[in-house]
Hints:
Number of helices: 12
CATH class of the largest domain: Alpha Beta
Domain 6-phosphogluconate dehydrogenase NADP-binding: 5-153
Active site: 163
InterPro entries: 3-OH-isobutyrate_DH-rel_CS (IPR002204), 6-PGluconate_DH-like_C_sf (IPR008927), 6PGD_dom2 (IPR013328), 6PGDH_NADP-bd (IPR006115), HIBADH-related (IPR015815), NAD(P)-bd_dom_sf (IPR036291)
Distance between the termini: 47 Å
Strand order of the largest sheet: 3-2-1-4-5-6
Number of strands: 9
Number of domains: 2
Radius of gyration: 19 Å
CATH superfamily of the largest domain: NAD(P)-binding Rossmann-like Domain
Structural class: alpha/beta
Order of helices and strands: EHEHEHEHEHEEHEHEHHHHH
Keywords: Oxidoreductase
Oligomer: single chain
Protein name: 3-hydroxyisobutyrate dehydrogenase
Strand content: 5-15%
Amino acid sequence: xxxxxxxxxxxxxxxxxxxxxxxxxxxxxxxxxxxxxxxxxxxxxxxxxxxxxxxxxxxxxxxxxxxxxxxxxxxxxxxxxxxxxxxxxxxxxxxxxxxxxxxxxxxxxxxxxxxxxxxxxxxxxxxxxxxxxxxxxxxxxxxxxxxxxxxxxxxxxxxxxxxxxxxxxxxxxxxxxxxxxxxxxxxxxxxxxxxxxxxxxxxxxxxxxxxxxxxxxxxxxxxxxxxxxxxxxxxxxxxxxxxxxxxxxxxxxxxxxxxxx
Length: 261
């Protein structure tokens, strides 16, 4: 069976790698902090000492890192060891510009698929992510089946673009719900009444996310995803200011921006 390299074992990458190992896929893993990779050795993973070692001999390379700078750093280290016919499956939330940059750096025979995901750590652990794929997914359809349901979006970069659209709509919705709850408090509307009506109204999905008990999508990563949307979007620019105004919330889930959370 072909070897897969999995690079990036953070909040999302670790449960995703566990899913692949549970499916008996041969996996070599690398993470900047080696201690996060070590538990996977008991499941059969080989732990590499560098990205270049991880990708050497791999048919598929999966990256799940935090931002465009981290992806660029991984590419710098991994590309010298990348087999010329490898498939690079980029699953991070980095935006289409970073995907295009990576595509331009791959050797001529290598293929790139951008496949960012929607869903938090619970869905990653259960293999129920929504995967937004750009490019020809046939070489990795079997692998992706262990992680979730795939929406084929079009050419390389289209998955990353759609991810920004959807994730920013969600973040903006949660921010609106947070402000609505603050308004309710100001006007003396009981918190429980406001929550109930928000959950049953046109912003029900955003309200559900704002009160999600187990999601783990840090405010800092949400702010990064809003920043990736770029300039000229005044509502999202206001959301970004709100997300970065409270450094104490940076590592808490997005629902922490809700009053009383």
